[in-house]
Amino acid sequence: MLFAGILGAVFGFISAVPVAGPISALIFSYGMRGKYSKGRWIAVGAGFAEACYTGLAFWGFTHFLHDLTVVFAAAKFIAGVLLIILGVYFFRSKKMRALQVRSSKSNSDRRNSVLVGAGMSFVNPTLIATWTATITTMYGLQPFKFTTVNNTFFSLGVWAGIVAWFTLMLKWMEKHRNAIEPKVLDRALKVIGVFLILLAIWLMFKSYEAIDPVLN
User: Between helices 148-176 and 22-32, what is the axis angle to 10°?
Assistant: First the structure.
């Protein structure tokens, strides 16, 4: 039980590291604007959604989704649109390049941030495919006995791992953000912006590839 939770936390932590998805890019953008608390609560919501998808993957929920090609294609397209918006924002935003101070926070902000994080992850059914692939591999390795309790603790661990990574990332940004030289910061943000736009184009292309046979 404890080992399943720890393993889930490790998997969740590692899965959250790349800044290559809408949630990661959004949280990073909030950190760059000094809205560290808002970024953390978005991570809480996103982690909860991924934990739910992990649990569903354990229970074989993909059996009900494997024929929904249009749904997965639409999810990739939506993710692509969000990444283009974020990519342009990274490339051009003056707020992300200005010196930052800690922003104020309220209970309403926390609730809204959790809902944004959970909502953006819940509308991305490709996450269940990702976690299903992970869990399929684990079934082969058998690192722990696959009981309801262990599966639940693994899913909760995934949630904790995702939140832990984004908390550490935002803590580092809070400490070092203003120490970065403006020119270096500007170039780094432009590189990230271009990367997100290219990733978005790739996702949209994959979406078209998936849906084209269905339409024709």
Answer: 30
Q: Residue 184: CB partners within 8 Å, gap ≥ 6?
A: none
Report whether 164 contacts 6 (CB < 8 A): no
Residue among 209, 210, 187 nearest 90 (CA): 187
Distance CA(167)–CA(10), nearest Å, equals 15
CA distance 124 to 117: 11
Closest to 48 (Cα-Cα) out of 135, 161, 187, 211: 161
- DSSP state, 102? P
Per the CB < 8 A criterion, the answer to whether 114 and 44 are in contact is yes
The separation between CA 64 and the C-alpha centre of its own chain, rounded to angstroms, equals 23
Half-sphere exposure of 21 (CA within 13 A, CB side): 16
Distance CA 89, CA 103 (A): 20
Give 8-61 pLDDT, tens digit per residue: 898 888 888 766 677 887 888 888 777 888 889 999 999 999 898 888 887 765
Only one residue has tokens 């006995």, namely 145
> pTM score, two decimals?
0.72
Helix (H, G, I), strand (E, B) or coil at 33: coil
62 band by pLDDT with thresholds 50, 70 and 90: very low
Per the CB < 8 A criterion, the answer to whether 17 and 8 are in contact is no
